[in-house]
Here is the input.
Amino acid sequence: MVHIGNDWDTLLADEFSSDYYLSLREFLKKEYYSTPVYPPMEDIFNALRYTSFADTRAVILGQDPYHGPGQAHGLCFSVKAGVRFPPSLQNIFKELEDEYGYKPPMSGELTAWARRGVLLLNTTLTVRQGCPQSHKGQGWERLTDAIISKLNEKKEPVVYLLWGANAWSKKALIKNPLHLVLECAHPSPLSAYRGFFGCGHFKKANEYLSRHGIAPIDWELK
Here is the structure.
C-alpha cells in the first residue's frame, strides 16, 4: 500500500483503504502495465513526500502531470533537471522575475520549493503518455479533495495559489477564514496574458504569511 513517510500517512489512511482508492489502484496497475503512464510509479506521491502537512505554508494546484516522456516527476509544473522548460513553467519563471527580479534558473525542477513548504499538487496525479486528462474521473479527484480538506483544518495560515479553472474548482473546499486564496488565469501561453502575468501572487503569498508571523517562502531557484 501507499507509504508517504510523514504525517500524510496517518491523515490519509482512511482514503488509502477506501473502496474508491482500491478501485483506482487496480485501474493504475492495468494502465502502467499496458501503456506509458507518467510520472513513474515511484514518483506519484512526491508532492506529499516532499511537503508534509505540518510544513505546508502554500499550495500551488496544477491539473494533471505533463504527458511527455521524462517530464513529470510528481510535482505540479516541475520537470527534472536537464529537461526543457514547458511553456507554462517558462511563464511562471517570467512572473517570478517580474516580481522579484530572479533570473530563470538553470533547472526547471521545483523540488526546492516543495522542501520549503510549497505543496505542488496536481488535481489528478497520473496521466497516459500524450493524453492529457486521460486519468480524470478515476478517483484522484476524491483523494486530492481530501488533501485540500485536511489542509483547510490547519490551525496555521496557508496560502492557496489557484491558477486556472481546474484549480478554481477546489476553492469551495477552502472555507477556513484563516487561509488566503489567490486566483488568476493559468500560466499556459493560451491564458497567461489574461491575468497570470502581473498577478503578483508570489509576493502576495509572502506578505500574508509575514503578517501572520510565518516565515515567508524563498522563491528563488538556482
In short: The radius of gyration is 17 Å.
